Amino acid sequence: MPDCLVDTNIWLRLADPAHEMFPVANSAVRTILGNLDALYLCPQVIGEFWRVATSPVNERGGFGWSPQQTDRQMQALEYIYPILHDGRLVYGEWRQIM
After folding, report:
1. pLDDT block averages, 10 residues each, the chain of length 98
2. Contact yes or no for 45/17 (Cβ under 8 A)
3. pLDDT at 5
4. Taking the C-alpha atoms of 53, 66, 69 and 46 in order, what is their torsion angle to the nearest 10 degrees?
5. 17: helix, coil or strand?
6. Which residues pair with 47 in a beta bridge?
7. Rounded Cα gap, residues 70 and 54, in angstroms
């Protein structure tokens, strides 16, 4: 079976159960998981997620989460889903910056 790199918008919708697109994203991921070996994250997706999650609510699409809350969400995603790395050193440095 094939694998799938999931777009940032799907992860964002799944992280916000109150969002109107949560049910659609949840259903899509469940369907994909039924047909694939694995879903993946990558540094670009994680960076985009971080940007939106920590942006103020009054910014378009921002969640207004603290860095600590965002980090907890990222740790949960990183625990569950494999990361396709640009390279171990690059990702490690990026996570230290966050």
Report:
1. 81 91 91 80 91 92 94 92 76 66
2. no
3. 83
4. 40
5. coil
6. none
7. 7
